[in-house]
Design a protein that fits this description.
The protein is an all-alpha fold and 273 residues long. It contains 13 helices and no strands. It has a single domain, classed as Methane Monooxygenase Hydroxylase, Chain G, domain 1, CATH 1.20.58. The structure holds protoporphyrin IX containing FE (HEM).
């Protein structure tokens, strides 16, 4: 092919790019509910975040599968990809981070009772992190596919459950009560698990791979916590202490959610190393 060859222009049907990316579908899924020009970026940012949630769920499911089969390097690769994706997700707060109440009010009423609280993909992320709650399925009763996916995620081991299973197979004293816990319930921190992690971190030469795994999980936990806090600050700027469109107390409710630590013992164990 010569250097000045130009791209092909003639295709019998839609372009191969379109067939792969479905850009025509993707770029016609924006239906603002108000006349306000600022609503477009609110809607698209929300859609972009939904797409990142989808990729991150995919990475964590890959990691879960690999951990269950003792393929730690593959699990680490997937977790590290998810860390960079979480960074990109968090960077997408930029266009919404400084909304004034008047700007947000211009389209807020049009949202009705719509709220990110009803995001099924975010809920799947939380379930994969071990933050299970059967009542979070209720809003999705009317959407069979999403409901079935959430029901499956509720019952299956979380990322953290798989990590604890791996530690147990490596001979570390993870209690049976933790390993055989009711997977549909929220993971509760355990002192014995905290000791297992402080032991791993206290002897990094002997536990190089497990320290790398612990640090990848800590990165994930930190970035999820940052997403929650960026959301909280954006919300505080855009609506102060008003109630949320989803019916919660708003900022006060989000503050409580943002206080939770993801993978709790990976944080508390650090006091004992
Ligand atoms: C500045 C714009 C935003 C404001 C003012 C805002 C406000 C709120 C409020 C008040 C809640 C609590 C539930 C409720 O009563 O509605 C909430 C929850 C939530 N929002 Fe937003 N939000 C904003 C942008 C976003 C965006 C772009 C996303 C991306 C998908 C998002 C995702 C969520 C999620 C997932 C929850 C549930 C959190 C949980 O269950 O812990 N929000 N939001």
């Amino acid at each position: 092919m010569s250097h000045d060859a130009a791209p092909h222009l003639d295709f019998a049907g839609t372009t191969p790019y379109e067939d792969y990316v479905q850009a025509d579908v993707l770029t016609h899924l924006q239906h603002p509910l108000s006349e306000d020009p600022g609503e477009m970026v609110f809607l698209v940012t929300t859609q972009v975040m939904e797409l990142w949630f989808t990729v991150i769920v995919h990475e964590w499911e890959t990691a879960i599968q690999a951990l269950g089969e003792d393929r730690v390097p593959e699990a680490l690769d997937a977790l590290k990809r998810s860390v960079r994706e979480l960074e990109a997700l968090n960077a997408s707060w930029k266009p919404l981070g400084q909304l004034t109440p008047a700007q947000f009010n211009s389209y807020r009423d049009a949202l009705g009772e719509g709220s990110g609280f009803q995001s099924a993909m975010y809920r799947r992320m939380e379930f994969l992190l071990g933050d299970k709650s059967a009542s979070m399925l209720v809003p999705h009763r009317g959407a069979p596919r999403v409901h079935a996916e959430l029901e499956k995620a509720l019952a299956q081991p979380s990322l953290y459950d798989e990590v604890l299973g791996l530690l147990a197979r490596r001979g570390l004293p993870v209690p049976r009560t933790v390993l055989e816990r009711d997977l549909t319930r929220k993971y509760e921190p355990s002192e014995a698990v905290e000791k297992v992690w402080s032991g791993i971190y206290g002897d990094p030469d002997q536990n190089a791979e497990l320290v790398r795994l612990g640090e990848a999980l800590t990165d994930v936990g930190e970035l999820v916590w940052r997403w929650r806090n960026d959301h909280l600050v954006a919300t505080r700027r855009a609506m102060g202490a008003k109630a949320g469109t989803g019916g919660s107390a708003g900022v006060a409710w989000l503050e409580k959610r943002a206080r939770k630590n993801v993978f709790p013992e990976l944080w508390t164990a650090r006091s004992y190393v």
